[in-house]
TrEMBL record:
Belongs to the binding-protein-dependent transport system permease family. FecCD subfamily. GO terms for molecular function: transmembrane transporter activity. The chain crosses the membrane at residues 21-43, 78-98, 110-130, 136-153, 165-187, 207-227, 256-284, 296-318, 324-343. GO terms for cellular component: plasma membrane. InterPro entries: ABC_BtuC-like, ABC_transptr_permease_BtuC, ABC_transptr_permease_F420-0. The lineage of its organism: Bacteria, Bacillati, Actinomycetota, Actinomycetes, Micrococcales. One of its GO terms (biological process) is siderophore-iron import into cell. Its main location: membrane. Keywords: Cell membrane, Membrane, Transmembrane, Transmembrane helix, Transport. SUPFAM superfamilies: ABC transporter involved in vitamin B12 uptake, BtuC. This is Iron chelate uptake ABC transporter family permease subunit. It comes from the Bacteria.
Length: 348
């Protein structure tokens, strides 16, 4: 297949025109949501107090808040809100890249077994009491799962989307089995609750350290992914079409998969396993601005940030004073969307 004969994706002028407005609305929504979400909780804090506190930290104006109120804003709520925004942005970007590389609309960052690998590492530390931090163990587990997936996919020769997906499913199944085995043999007492919270995703333990880890990962690994829009557009033509455009398909696919896995592993290490963000947000944004990846990647990042901020706010307040893992909220929203996409794909 040559470039001239390859079927090029078509995006309309309306899609192009909607992108700047969509980006502006999402940025405004994120800014307002940071303030609004900071006011929601057991302690009564007004929006103007949050704004004054932030401006004071920036050296502008003066905040009359008590030390307790300052602590609630800066030690509890803002670190959690910002972590949710960064994790949501990163997972959404990973979802866009995964769907493009595998040409599978149902792909998300956990398709390569990354979530299961991270779960094995985290649960092993939690139940065995190994002297390693849970985030570090989860990160190592995610990378190990990626290595296993790529090695398994290459057994058949060239790395292709279909073999990569199948290998990821196999690694995911093995990882899930190992996690269950660890829990069955070793988990006791309160460790069950801690493990369950991690497996379902939770931002309850977020701190400014979490913000730092997630932000550094998003900057270092997310930047090359955000810059890969033209390459991903070429992948939409199929491997032959991309190769005809001069792209070394196998090498580029492997490199982007590795970067995606590194970013996912770093995000999972601070948030636990949060599903469906990388699956549903790219599709939602694609419906508004079309499928051109130079627009889809940054707008999906903004949409992911906004979505996970409010999903986590619901998770910590909807059953107040009890808190539920944020993964339950994203799954309750993402599950029906996933079923719709599956049905739509079968009827296509």
């Amino acid at each position: 297949m040559t470039v001239a004969t390859a079927k090029r994706p078509v995006w309309g002028a309306q899609d192009v025109a909607r992108a700047p407005l969509t980006g502006a609305l999402l940025l405004a929504g994120i800014t307002l949501s940071v303030v609004a979400a900071s006011t929601i909780g057991t302690a009564d804090i007004a929006p103007q107090d949050v704004v004054r506190s932030i401006l004071t930290r920036l050296g502008i104006g003066y905040s009359a808040l008590t030390p307790l109120q300052e602590g609630i804003i800066w030690q509890l709520r803002l670190p959690r809100i910002v972590t949710a925004a960064v994790v949501g942005a990163g997972l959404a970007v990973c979802g866009v890249v995964m769907q493009a590389l595998t040409r599978n609309p149902l792909a998300d960052p956990y398709l390569l077994g990354l979530s299961s690998g991270a779960s094995v590492g985290a649960v092993a530390v939690l139940v065995l009491g190994i002297g390693v931090h849970v985030p570090a163990a989860a990160f190592v587990g995610a990378l190990a799962a990626l290595g296993a997936t790529l090695a398994l996919a290459r057994l058949g020769g060239r790395l292709s989307p279909s073999t990569t997906v199948l290998a990821g499913l196999a690694v995911s199944a093995v990882g899930s089995a190992l996690t269950s085995l660890f829990i069955l043999l070793h988990a006791t007492g309160d460790s069950y609750r801690e493990i369950l919270n991690w497996l379902l995703g939770s931002l309850a333990g977020s701190s400014w350290s979490s913000v730092g880890i997630a932000t550094i990962a998003l900057v270092i690994a997310g930047a090359p992914l955000l810059a890969s829009g033209r390459v991903l557009d070429a992948f939409a033509l199929g491997d032959s079409g991309a190769a005809a455009l001069g792209i070394p398909v196998a090498r580029v696919r492997t490199a982007l998969l590795v970067v995606t896995a590194v970013l996912t592993g770093a995000l999972v290490s601070v948030s636990g396993s949060i599903g469906f963000v990388g699956l549903i947000l790219p599709h939602a944004v694609r419906l508004v601005v079309g499928g051109m990846h130079r627009r889809l990647l940054p707008l999906s990042a903004l949409a992911g940030a906004l979505f996970l901020m409010w999903a986590d706010t619901l998770a910590r307040t909807v059953l107040d004073p009890r808190e539920i893992p944020v993964g339950i909220v994203t799954a309750l929203i993402g599950g029906p969307v996933f079923a719709y996409l599956l049905a739509r794909r079968r009827s296509a």
